[in-house]
Write the structure tokens for this entry.
Amino acid sequence: MKQVLRSLVAVWLLTAACNPDEFTQQFHNEPLAPSFSAASVEALDRLGPSVVDEGVNFGVYSERATRLELLLFDDPESDLPSQRFEMTRFGDVWNVWVRGIGWGQHYGFVAWGPNWPYDPSWYPGSIRGFVADVDRDGNRFNPNKLLFDPYGLALHRDHDWSRGSNASGPARTESTYAAAAKSVVVQSRYAWSDGEATWRGNRQSGSFAGHGWQDLILYEVHPKGFTAETASAVDHPGTFRGVGEMAGYFSDLGITAVELMPVHEKSLDGGYWGYWTLSFFAPEILYSSTRDPLRVIDEFKGMVDALHQNGIEVILDVVYNHTGEGGLWRSRRYIDDISLDPRTDAAAVSLDPKEVASIYSYRGLDNAAYYALDTDNQTYWDNTGVGNQTRPNHRPMRRLILDSLRFYAEEMHVDGFRFDLAGILGERDLDFNNWDDPANTVIQDIIDDPVLRSLNARIIAEPWTAGGSYGSLIGAYPPATDTTEVAWYEWNAYFRHWWRSFVNLDDWALSRTEGGSDGGNVMTGTDRVYGTNGRRPYHSINYITSHDGFTMYDLTSFNDPQNFCGMLNPICCSDPASPWCETDNGDRDNRSRDWGGMAEPFKRQLMRAWFVGLMISHGTPMILGGDEWMRTQYGNNNAYSTGADNEWNWFRWGEWRASDERTRMHDFVRQIIRFRREHAYAFARTEYGAGASFVWKNELNADKTDWSDRHVMIHYDDPAQGPELAILINMERGAVDFTLPPGVTWRRLADTQEYFEDMAPDPLRSGNITLDEPVELTEPSYNVPASTIVVLEAAP
């Protein structure tokens, strides 16, 4: 590529622009030849802005554009740019270098193509040159829409819809030059703390104590909602700085990594969760305490630094499978409260004209290159369930994914990534209904990437998609090509469903299976799923709850989701036909149960059982933030909407700090996490079939042969590996007497039954767990009440 670019430099010199004259009547500058250096040649290889030679080079990708222009804004709110330059094409990358500008410069692009060829008489807001909003090849170029830079590191604000619609169709001539979010050339000035170099060195070494591949204990949380409520007591609520201020909370809880829901810039109507990503490089400016685009990156780094100083890794939830650019806006119509989907209901097909789509960036630069177009090239493939599906295995998106990951790993010091609907990343390009061999896709590129490998970045898949014929894909993600120690972790939905059923349902026996895995397999790393291609137990991310579904408290409080009119979705009260209020909104396979308003102590007992089950199972545990103090979403299991960004969906710190029951639950979770870390020899396995030995036993202390019931003992029986453990699990609805393994003195560390909840001398400490003052047992058996788990340790 460099040789091709250098061979074209002479041509480029004749068309590149610097020190432009004032605008002509046609609103274009006459380019002047700049001085040109080797550094500028190197910059041509880069996408995005590169500050070189007392100026900035801009590079942007487009296969189908016929003309691209760079617009510079001294005042980002102006209706017209201060300078404008035609860009030069080298292959499929367009470049222009401008002298005399630098950090802080606001800019954007406009593009012409086959559906809107360039007309010299065109001016912003005109129709001149227009052929179609979308042509038969899927082009949606529109020079009236200012496009942000896909590689820009900051946007100066959200799109201002009051100043101009970015839609095509009837709004095709509305200029968005003033309305659009401008990209900003930014430079980080953050000075990392003295300890950060040590942290990075430890992470790169591969021998970081407490942070090995098997040591993760994840805490999933929303970067705004975690501290947005004033009772969080941080100085900068609802921001990256606020998350950093809570580093001590994470450290005290005992987790080793925070998994932040999407932090990238999203569209203004992009939902509370933030999965409608607009820029895969720029952190969300609304999560900044200053709202200054020049400082957002530094504020993000400050958060990472604060977490690292407290021993906490930072994992980002990233969404490369679709964008927040907006698709065909109205995808459904309602008749007598029945939703009609245009993909399946003929009555709805004509509602949403194909001409109407929003144009922020990717669509206006090269719609067909970035997006998965359906066979008509005018509508979109949708295995994401939300539209706007990308082409991750086509050249521009494949490179963007790796460049984005490298930027956050290298520059922002992020420790790993969780990939939303990662199955989309494995789709065969232009054959989106089939999963390719991972070796042919960006999935393998990611796990083999030398930059990510050098930093030992965690790579985690949400392994399914929302559609397609290839199912959930759980277990299909590969190890690196040269080692099985480094591989994709996966969210283990089989673990989630099995444990929810085991605790909540009366007839769920140990022998019942999810994805072919029974209780014994689920509790030991699900090797039938993850061991088939050489991966390790820790590659199973075990969880009971996540952002996508009920909270743990709500799993015991609601039979069905409450996703419509309510505090977490107020728009459904005033506008029940809103797209935010779909009739199929949310997961229906919840395995939840309303145990009744009088059963609060029993519900807490069940929650403690889930937490113990999570921590004693082999694999990598993940907690949904707030479950440690029984956060509720009032039965909403899909609290993603824009209207859900409110105080009822944020973490209501005042509720648990004022509640003895919630405070005791928090204490229990903190201590059961500590128990797992202190007994890593048993639970944090590095290989299947290796590590501390254990035996499955029945209630008579004999080998377990009958798995048709709901109780079992797990005996870790080799004191050479660590203290012997006996874990007594009873999910029968009646008590079971367990005969304990003889020859040792057993001490009780934890018992989840409600009887012990308030038995501690301190009413704010949990009586269900006594790690520092274990209770020595004097009897050869232990009566385990219904729906209870007991953890025993042999005395030294």
Remarks:
- The chain has three domains: 2-184, 201-325+390-671, 691-794.
- The first helix runs from residue 2 to 7.
- Residues 392 and 398 are 5 Å apart (CA to CA).
